[in-house]
Amino acid sequence: MKIYDISMDIYEDMTVYKNKLEKKPKIVVTQDHTTGSSYTSYITMEMHTGTHIDAPLHMIDGGETMELYAVENFVRKCKVLDLTDAEDTITKELLQRKSIEKGDFVLLKTKNSFTEAFDFQFVYLEKSGASYLKEIGIAGVGIDALGIERDQSDHETHKILLSQGISIMEGLRLKGVEEGEYILCAPPLKIRNVEAAPTRAILIEGLFADMNNIR
């Protein structure tokens, strides 16, 4: 068995979407061992900072919040798809080359995984690719960028997926992960009435024998 941590580290100077300062987390120490008998701190950060999961409310007015998703959605078999040959966008044509079935949770590995700095020209899932995944009837999709789309005028990719209850996971790190099947374990933080939530995402390789009850 091998475990891959596919999450981003959370720290104050971490990479954030479009390098916007307001998206960087703030960690404040409220007590240390010189001022008290214990060390305590708190963090302030946007729900979309680092590795996180989007719910429909993020892009759909009146859409459902994170309570929509059962924890089982994120503890399951998944497929990592190697799309490192995609130069700009992930289209229907590229996805048709892969084995994707109804109910799959797919993680899209692109050249995004090979840079830590924010790339304003990151590879994203184009609307034809999103529509193809919706037609298949996947359960969820993750990508190794801080956005599943890039400056699309009407957020079409998000809306195509989220309108069908297809969960979106952003900010993955897949550099050392080969294409194939894994167990995904990435339950979001249990926060009520929000449009997204951070997650600690891991992949487990070689554990299928005992996972017969996970779809």
Automatic annotation (TrEMBL):
<dbReference type="GO" id="GO:0004061">
    <property type="term" value="F:arylformamidase activity"/>
</dbReference>
<comment type="function">
    <text>Catalyzes the hydrolysis of N-formyl-L-kynurenine to L-kynurenine, the second step in the kynurenine pathway of tryptophan degradation.</text>
</comment>
<dbReference type="Pfam" id="PF04199">
    <property type="entry name" value="Cyclase"/>
</dbReference>
<protein>
    <recommendedName>
        <fullName>Kynurenine formamidase</fullName>
        <ecNumber>3.5.1.9</ecNumber>
    </recommendedName>
</protein>
<keyword id="KW-0479">Metal-binding</keyword>
<comment type="pathway">
    <text>Amino-acid degradation; L-tryptophan degradation via kynurenine pathway; L-kynurenine from L-tryptophan: step 2/2.</text>
</comment>
<dbReference type="InterPro" id="IPR037175">
    <property type="entry name" value="KFase_sf"/>
</dbReference>
<keyword id="KW-0823">Tryptophan catabolism</keyword>
<keyword id="KW-0862">Zinc</keyword>
<dbReference type="GO" id="GO:0046872">
    <property type="term" value="F:metal ion binding"/>
</dbReference>
<comment type="subunit">
    <text>Homodimer.</text>
</comment>
<dbReference type="GO" id="GO:0019441">
    <property type="term" value="P:L-tryptophan catabolic process to kynurenine"/>
</dbReference>
<dbReference type="InterPro" id="IPR007325">
    <property type="entry name" value="KFase/CYL"/>
</dbReference>
<keyword id="KW-0378">Hydrolase</keyword>
